[in-house]
Amino acid sequence: MAESPRSSATSSAVSTAAMVAAQSVASRGNSTLPPDMLDQVARRMAIMGVATALVWILTRIIYRTGLEHQTLAPMRQVIFLCGLSLSLVMVYLARFRKLAPDSLLRLGFTFEIATAFLIAVAVQSTPLEFAHPTLGNLPVHGVSWLASWVIVYSAIVPAQPRAIFLAAILSVSMEPAWIYVDAALHSSFPDRWSALVGPPIPKPPVSSILTIYSISLLYAALAVIPSKIVLRLSQQVGRARRMGSYHLTSKLGSGGMGEVWMAHHRMLARPAAIKLVRSDLLGARSRAEAGETLQRFEREAQATASLQSPHTIQVFDFGLSDDHTFYYVMELLDGLDLDSLVRQYGPVDPARSVYMLRQACHSLADAHAIGFTHRDIKPANLFTCRLGQDYDFVKVLDFGLVKRSKANNDVTVTQEGLTGGTPAFMAPEAVLGDPIDHRADLYSLGCVGSWLLTGRLLFDEENPMKMAMAHVQEPPPAPSAASELEIPAKLDALILECLAKKPDDRPSSANEIDARLAEIEFDQPWNNDRAARWWQMHQPKRKSPTAGATEIPVSVTQLFKQDSDPD
Fold first, then answer.
1. Which one is catalytic: 182, 337, 366, 376?
2. Segment 357-380 mean pLDDT
3. Any catalytic annotation for residue 36?
């Protein structure tokens, strides 16, 4: 039976009132939530939506199978569909991050109060009864379903306690309010309303309702407790996430050597990326192995910090936290790595490739001058970014596999039995386990140059072992043979020379490669103006994280990817 105009208007009015009330609740301080809690809003709202949808479905099944002797009013069907639809909408908005955390919180309070309204109507439209020996059938009262609803909601969805309290009071008030709305409609439209929601049930006086639902009001007050606990735990976690003078705000990713977080200095506005590692995160099998891992991580920080080239990622600080987490603080870059660049936009113009390779040579020359060999040069470890007014400014990342030459009376601390590097970009001597020097980096740089110009791996074999052995046995193809771009003959020849199997047949240094790249002439050389136009078209400037952006403006996931890289 169709719903009467009067009943439709009444339901709409109650729902609208719930939405207005929720907006008022949400405006009371939820923007002051700690960043960690704001980051969890979408995930927790999605969990709440899924759980609520499942409860609606389960309740529907129970009433269809266990209460077949009762007549289910049409209103019950409407309430079920509305509740399920509302839950699924919340799942969609939260799961796919359609709203900012503050907006999602406001909508969440609307969801809480509107769902409370639907529960109140559902309970009253199909009341459970028990048979009294002298008084006959009586409706079951006690702790309302709404009490459970507000407790669960406050325990899952993060919010300020005062907002939780106001939303809980409004939610548990839906049922006593609906009792009198229902009674009024039964009185005004006895036939039509009874056909829609079922026969009227005895309505107790106001004094009885206050007694019956006083426990629900108590539960509304108790809902503040879990919200305070969650808030306090979040603040404690925030204090625990302080590394030196920096506070961790958002996790950017994790990998074989640890985790990378976005962080802010306590006194400065400068954002940073913090790389951290604990022995338990890496699954060390012994105390000695854990010590080697921490030593390796410390070596990476010291090696990177000792380099002076502006084309090497800067290290601001490093140390050991109170919980024995080793960390170091790096600059937060705004751009993308060369692996992502080629995958998203295809092979790179030769002039631009030369522009980028020369900058990588500057970083490598600085490292080689003090006896460091990177050993893992690959597109994912070369990052092109915006730095002030400079565009396509290349930074070399991840000196985690760095090795000092024996001439400097030092040895590497990479794990015993582990071949460092990435198979798709490893020099033949590294594959064979022979002694390596800086010329292994030059070979890898040649692989990077081939990748930029062709968009293909030098040897695209079916597994890492075959790929690594191809570097030892197979002659490298010239970039011009695998690219539609017009590649200058000098660039083609230089790339092939870098890819020579024997180190002695390669250029002698990164400085020599840089000088020879500088000699290559182009009709339209790549410069900062051309780079700026490309970035403005393809990578528009994102909101600064210091201005309150919830989205991380840079992908730094390659800062921690090392031996475990699938390539």
1. 376
2. 93
3. no
